[in-house]
Each structure stands twice: as structure tokens, then as C-alpha cells.
Write a structure and sequence with these properties.
Helices cover 25% and strands 31% of the residues. A 5-stranded parallel β-sheet has the order 2-1-3-4-5, with helices on both faces. The chain has 6 helices and 15 strands. Helix 2 (37-47) packs parallel to helix 3 (63-69). It has helices at residues 11-24, 37-47, 63-69, 104-119, 128-138, 190-194, and strands at residues 3-7, 29-34, 51-55, 75-80, 96-99, 148-153, 156-161, 165-171, 174-179, 183-186, 202-206, 209-212, 216-221, 227-231, 237-240. The protein is of the alpha/beta class and 251 residues long. This is Response regulator transcription factor. It comes from Undibacterium amnicola. Residues 149-251 form the HTH LytTR-type domain. Keywords: DNA-binding, Phosphoprotein.
């Protein structure tokens, strides 16, 4: 049985792709539908699908990030609303993509290519450099980044400059914000805060944890392969989920 996951943060495109795949490739088993890149990454590690249909732009972790983090584990097909001019990096045909709204004819072609690769047991391509170049081209250049986090503590409003924050953790309906000498909770989900953070400066290491990369002092891997990290400026030890353990592989 060939298996796949679908990752798209918009309900309608995700459902449309599922419907078309059910019609055009009924033998394909869709084992997970994901709204965010982090969910897709965890689903790939948990289910080991043969194929991942990944929206290029999702909140926080993009489809390109997911493919780069899971290279070699499954065949990736990207879905995107960008026009062909923005997709010149795809011109060599090395990366398969579906332009939204996805046409039946284009999906038929993509399915034929996937079946051919699976039939000969072709290994998923390592397209890291090409994906990184594409990511640079498509990443928004003028995104307004968070500069301050404000948190109410009783009748006081604390102000945390973003360059002083060590990590964020999700705490039910709140997000915990931690600096070297203070902390607070804000009434905003972590996934919304992530959108305003520079992904080169703040790394997601768990569904509920984002850390400042240059604050990481060391990482530990136990006998079961579980990873934890220690940060400069705090005694707290943070867990790394399996989906993000790739960040800490030796060079």
C-alpha cells in the first residue's frame, strides 16, 4: 500500500487535493492531513509515508523546511499559489510541484511520475541546495518582525526586547516568555508568535518550544536517542522532539 500525507494550512485546498487523489489514485492511502509544517514533520517521522504533498508556504515551518528536514525519507511534491515566474527554480523539473488551483491534468502527470519512481524503488532526491535557493527567492522580504513582547503581570506591563529572549514555550492558552533574569506569560498562541520571529535566529525544537539559536550551549543525546538542550543564561533543560532532532546532528 502506497501512503502519503497532505500538508496545507488552508482547509479548502487540502480537501480538494484529497478529493482529487481519492478519485485519480484510489489505491493511495492518505494517512495524515496537517495544517502546519511542524505537524507535517512529526507525521513523516511517525508514519514514514512514501509521499508528502507539502504546501510551500505554511505558518512557522514551511514546506521547504519540512522537505529539507526529512530529505531521503519520502518523495516530496510541493503545492503552491505562486505564479510560474516565481518558480524558475523548478524549471529543471528536479522538484515536482502543483500550482494552485491544482488542475486535474497536472495532478495526473504528477501521479504518473510518482508511480514510476516508486515502481523502480528510486530513492527520494536530496535537493537541499535547490530548495534553499528557492526558499530565498520565495521568502517574504519585508515581513514585519517582532521587536518587543509585552506581557501583563497584575497591574504592570512588562516589556521584553526580542534580543533578550532566550526561549518561548506553549502553556495551554498562553505562551511563556523567558529571559535571563525574568519571565512572563502572554495571551497569544506560540504559533502566532512564530510568524513574527526570524527563523534564522529562533529555532523551533518542539511543537511547543522555540529557542534563540545563539543561546544554545550544548545538546545531549541519551541512550534512547532523545535529545535535550542547555541554554546559556538559564538552568532549564529543554526537550527536543524527534521531528527536530536533525538540527543537532554533528557536522
Amino acid at each position: 500500500m502506497t501512503t502519503a500525507i497532505i500538508a496545507d494550512d488552508e482547509d479548502l485546498p487540502r480537501k480538494d487535493l484529497r478529493r482529487m487523489l481519492d478519485e485519480l489514485w484510489p489505491e493511495l492511502q492518505i494517512i495524515a492531513e496537517c495544517e502546519h509544517g511542524a505537524d507535517a514533520l512529526e507525521a513523516i517521522h511517525q508514519h514514514n509515508p512514501d509521499i508528502a504533498f507539502l504546501d510551500i508556504r505554511m505558518p512557522g515551518m514551511t514546506g521547504l523546511d519540512v522537505a529539507n528536514a526529512t530529505k531521503g525519507r519520502c518523495h516530496a511534491v510541493f503545492t503552491t499559489a505562486y505564479d510560474n515566474h516565481a518558480l524558475e527554480a523548478f524549471s529543471a523539473g528536479a522538484i515536482d510541484y502543483l500550482l494552485k488551483p491544482i488542475s486535474r491534468e497536472r495532478l495526473v502527470d504528477a501521479i504518473a511520475r510518482l508511480k514510476a519512481r516508486l515502481e523502480v524503488k528510486a530513492a527520494p532526491s536530496d535537493l537541499s541546495s535547490l530548495m534553499q535557493e528557492l526558499d530565498k527567492r520565495l521568502r517574504p522580504q519585508n515581513v514585519e518582525r517582532i521587536r518587543w513582547i509585552s506581557a501583563s503581570v497584575g497591574d504592570t506591563i512588562k516589556m521584553f526586547p526580542i534580543d533578550k529572549i532566550l526561549f518561548f514555550t506553549s502553556d495551554e492558552k498562553y505562551t511563556r516568555v523567558v529571559c535571563t533574569d525574568d519571565e512572563a506569560h502572554v495571551r497569544k498562541p506560540l504559533k502566532e508568535i512564530i510568524d513574527g520571529l526570524d527563523p534564522e535566529i529562533f529555532w523551533q525544537i518542539h511543537r511547543s518550544v522555540v529557542v534563540r539559536a545563539d543561546a544554545i550551549a550544548k545538546a545531549h543525546r541519551d541512550e534512547l536517542g532523545k535529545v535535550t538542550v542547555e541554554l546559556r543564561g538559564t538552568k532549564e533543560v529543554l526537550k527536543v522532539s524527534q521531528a527536530y532532532a536533525w538540527r543537532f546532528k554533528p557536522m
